[in-house]
Amino acid sequence: MPKPALLVVDDDPDVLRAIARDLRRHYGQDYRVLRAASGDEALAALDELKERGDPVALLLSDQRMHLVARIEEHPKIEVRLNTEVAECLGENHLEGLVLETSGGERGEAARDEVETRYLFVFIGAAPRTDWLDGVVVRDERGFVPTSPDLEEHHLDGWPLERAPFLLEMNVPGIFVAGDVRHASVKRVASAVGEGSVAVHFMHRHLASL
What we know:
Layout: E1 5-9, H1 13-27, E2 32-36, H2 39-52, E3 56-61, H3 68-73, E4 83-89, E5 96-101, E6 110-115, H4 188-207
Parallel strand pairs: 1-2, 1-3
Antiparallel strand pairs: 4-5, 5-6
């Protein structure tokens, strides 16, 4: 039986190559890493894998790619809703997971174990900024607007003569970078770049005090 496939989908060729390279380096011994540059190409690859009966272990797609409906229909991909990882099992390395699914009969959670050596964690979709409520401006989803996305009414209490620096919030000297920022590009490379820009403007702010 062939190795399970890790299918990477992104329309940015540099990002696609980089992600595939990293996956091969870390997981190539146990998985085949396949690439697709578009949603249509990815769906064609999934159909071909389906026809051959090859298992798909992971589909890693840019969030702009609309593949959800076909993923749910694919017989080799199991989608579990309302499910969280309750436990990680193993001695010297990961050997399995305990999954807990809510919404069972009489409202109790159902638990079952699955064997796996890998767990991929996706973070950043929920900003977790409730602790900033009342301190800085947040959008309706909880993400934090920064310059240049701050609107005029966000700056009603702005105390300085200068305008906010790039990536600065509506409170002077508070900067944000990465996924938590409103309208950010949800990629690690972008977050790292924004972080270096934020540090530069922090120094400019501190120099003006």
